[in-house]
Design goal:
By secondary structure, the chain is α/β, with parallel strands linked by helices. The protein has 2 domains: 226 residues, Response regulator (Rossmann fold), CATH 3.40.50.2300; 145 residues, 3-Layer(aba) Sandwich (Rossmann fold). 39% of the residues lie in helices and 16% in strands. It contains 13 helices and 13 strands. It has a 5-stranded parallel β-sheet, with helices on both faces. Strands 7-6-8-9 form a 4-stranded parallel β-sheet, sandwiched between helices. Strand 3, helix 4 and strand 4 form a beta-alpha-beta unit. Helix 1 runs parallel beside helix 4, helix 2 crosses helix 11 and helix 2 packs across helix 12. The chain is globular and about 65 Å long.
Length: 398
Amino acid sequence: MRNNRTKLIALVAVAAATATACSGRSAGSQSDSGDIVVRASYPLSGALASAGVSADGAAAYFKAVNAGGGINGRKIDFQVKDDAFDPSRLVSNNTGFVKKDHAVVVINFGGIAVAARPQLNTAGVAQIVQGGETELSDIKKFPDSRAFVPDIAWEGELQGRYLKERTPKAVVGFMGFNNDLSDSQLAGLNKAGVKPVKALRLPPGQGDVTSQVTELKAAKVDTLVVTLGPPTLGALLSYLGQIDYHPKLFIGSPYADFASTVKPAGTANVKGALSYQWFKDPQNPAVHNEKALVRYRADMAKYEPKADASQSFALTGYGLAAAVVSALKNAKQITSGDFLTAWDTLAKVQDPLLIDGATLTGESDGRLVHEYQLHEFNGTSWVPEGPVVNVAHIGISG
């Protein structure tokens, strides 16, 4: 399945680059004196539709900025199309964003965004991807593409360092999606010297995990690193509780939130789990009253009242939009090139998405988020354990 997907993405990428090159559109997309055109392609349907709510969060933030006068008096024209997490649909969407809409910034979700990199880079249009795959950091080959969220390989290395130091004799297992996100996280674990005895991969949306758990038990796994989205992760943790099998859990940050994990699994089945986290969860009682989240909920209620503001993906989209606005405000001109220069040189910028004490700072990897904090679920909330760690300062990123 993964090989077929890789071939499809490669074919789509070649076709997209050819189509864009033949369009006659020159590099260095720029906005005229009117609205600033920002477009996004998200999985609003399909197996990863839970991530599509990110678009609602982004829309709410952009609308709030427009209500406050926009950027130097210019409004942000933001529109979203559904790709159902299909690379061919994503590329088709992006073709319209480039050739018809003349977007300055295009936002994509997940590893399938690699299919659109040749297309957008040929056109000189800034691409911002909400994805943690390592391959999204290749800004030398694709200088107009950036990834907003951290490289999950960094998190894997943090997890590996923790396990080597605290439980060097642990029998480690891994469960993740059958995609490049798992490749990246496993690479980080391996770099820290942790090679799981079982590394199991599942397709998005799978709910039956009994055979995988049987494999983990047979391998005597006592520590499980897992990065799976709903409904799989909730089903996994619930089943572990049902059969009284309790390996130490290390839950990947993308899905350690209440909506994806805690509520579906039940608090008793998550208690004691660890997670290196970089963003706030709007359902976490420990941060409910933080000023940034109060403002977030107010903006969602006012500008996207039909959206589910309790979902962490909605807050992620909101925070991504805030980062885009920060770069647009710092750009010399509203062009894709100046936007990316501003993005890369952001320094210690506050963002409503981030954990307390963390900021956005551009680094040579093209990403803005480099700070994590270990959290443990105490049965009620995710609570911090230890200081905020900057992976750019401890030899992990870069």
